[in-house]
């Protein structure tokens, strides 16, 4: 399993300080609205110097033409992009095609980790996992907070997963460890960047999944 840091901090100094501390223990960096809205997408140029895979998390959920534009801009600076599956085949296809043309990766959100996802997302998640497979996406995003669902969605999609929800949202590494392998990522944010000692926390998590 690989460790992806969710760098959901809102100021650049904090982002750099966290990265300086944890860089030896992480495999990828996920950047989303909290950091990009204040500084713009070019903040990713500064993060690139850490030589880790960078995934843009804007959870694209728009019509194909707009999804395509956002993906194209983001992937100039990042190695991968995250898109919602529920908006439909055409919207998702637009992102996957752009990413493939640029030699980059797409991860498709099929079921989210928070309690609210159970009512509206869970009933369609298995369909979305199949859609991700059929469109030849690179990853699905599925919840660590529901290990049985994670297992099922991974099986249906036959794709590697990026899975959030560990520690702060209640997901437990020991409950998902057997489901995942070396191609899968666990996504961890607050348990690292809000820890008293982010370096120690990242190291402990890396040791647990390694
Ligand atoms: O470890 P946390 O809870 O502080 O952060 C988890 C990160 O994963 C945070 O960036 C969330 O926006 C993201 N995330 C979820 O928590 N749940 C989901 O279902 C999906 C994501 C995500 O990354 O989607 C791509």
From TrEMBL:
<comment type="pathway">
    <text>Pyrimidine metabolism; UMP biosynthesis via de novo pathway; UMP from orotate: step 2/2.</text>
</comment>
<dbReference type="GO" id="GO:0004590">
    <property type="term" value="F:orotidine-5'-phosphate decarboxylase activity"/>
</dbReference>
<dbReference type="GO" id="GO:0006207">
    <property type="term" value="P:'de novo' pyrimidine nucleobase biosynthetic process"/>
</dbReference>
<dbReference type="InterPro" id="IPR014732">
    <property type="entry name" value="OMPdecase"/>
</dbReference>
<feature type="binding site">
    <location>
        <position position="113"/>
    </location>
    <ligand>
        <name>substrate</name>
    </ligand>
</feature>
<dbReference type="InterPro" id="IPR001754">
    <property type="entry name" value="OMPdeCOase_dom"/>
</dbReference>
<dbReference type="InterPro" id="IPR018089">
    <property type="entry name" value="OMPdecase_AS"/>
</dbReference>
<dbReference type="InterPro" id="IPR011060">
    <property type="entry name" value="RibuloseP-bd_barrel"/>
</dbReference>
<dbReference type="Pfam" id="PF00215">
    <property type="entry name" value="OMPdecase"/>
</dbReference>
<dbReference type="GO" id="GO:0044205">
    <property type="term" value="P:'de novo' UMP biosynthetic process"/>
</dbReference>
<feature type="binding site">
    <location>
        <position position="8"/>
    </location>
    <ligand>
        <name>substrate</name>
    </ligand>
</feature>
<keyword id="KW-0665">Pyrimidine biosynthesis</keyword>
<keyword id="KW-0210">Decarboxylase</keyword>
<feature type="domain" description="Orotidine 5'-phosphate decarboxylase">
    <location>
        <begin position="2"/>
        <end position="205"/>
    </location>
</feature>
<feature type="active site" description="For OMPdecase activity">
    <location>
        <position position="57"/>
    </location>
</feature>
<comment type="similarity">
    <text>Belongs to the OMP decarboxylase family.</text>
</comment>
<feature type="active site" description="For OMPdecase activity">
    <location>
        <position position="59"/>
    </location>
</feature>
<feature type="binding site">
    <location>
        <position position="30"/>
    </location>
    <ligand>
        <name>substrate</name>
    </ligand>
</feature>
<feature type="active site" description="For OMPdecase activity">
    <location>
        <position position="62"/>
    </location>
</feature>
<feature type="binding site">
    <location>
        <position position="189"/>
    </location>
    <ligand>
        <name>substrate</name>
    </ligand>
</feature>
<protein>
    <recommendedName>
        <fullName>Orotidine 5'-phosphate decarboxylase</fullName>
        <ecNumber>4.1.1.23</ecNumber>
    </recommendedName>
</protein>
<dbReference type="InterPro" id="IPR013785">
    <property type="entry name" value="Aldolase_TIM"/>
</dbReference>
<feature type="binding site">
    <location>
        <position position="190"/>
    </location>
    <ligand>
        <name>substrate</name>
    </ligand>
</feature>
<dbReference type="GO" id="GO:0005829">
    <property type="term" value="C:cytosol"/>
</dbReference>
<keyword id="KW-0456">Lyase</keyword>
């Amino acid at each position: 399993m690989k460790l992806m840091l969710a760098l959901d901090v809102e100021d650049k100094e904090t982002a750099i300080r966290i990265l300086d501390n944890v860089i030896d223990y992480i495999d990828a960096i996920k950047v989303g609205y909290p950091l990009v809205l204040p500084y713009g997408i070019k903040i990713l140029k500064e993060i690139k110097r850490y030589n880790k895979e960078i995934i843009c998390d804007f959870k694209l959920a728009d019509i194909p033409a707009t999804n395509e534009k956002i993906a194209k801009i983001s992937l100039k600076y990042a190695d991968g992009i995250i898109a919602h599956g529920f908006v439909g085949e055409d919207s998702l296809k637009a992102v996957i095609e752009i990413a493939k043309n640029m030699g980059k990766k797409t991860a498709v959100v099929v079921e989210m980790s928070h309690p609210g996802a159970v009512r509206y997302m869970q009933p369609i998640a298995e369909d979305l996992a199949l859609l991700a497979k059929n469109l030849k996406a690179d990853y699905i995003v599925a919840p660590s907070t529901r290990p049985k669902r994670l297992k099922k969605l991974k099986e249906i999609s036959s794709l590697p997963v990026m899975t959030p929800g560990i520690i702060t949202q209640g997901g437990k590494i020991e409950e998902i460890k057997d489901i995942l392998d070396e191609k899968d990522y666990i996504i961890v944010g607050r348990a690292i960047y809000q820890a008293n000692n982010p370096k120690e926390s990242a190291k402990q998590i890396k040791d647990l999944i390694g």
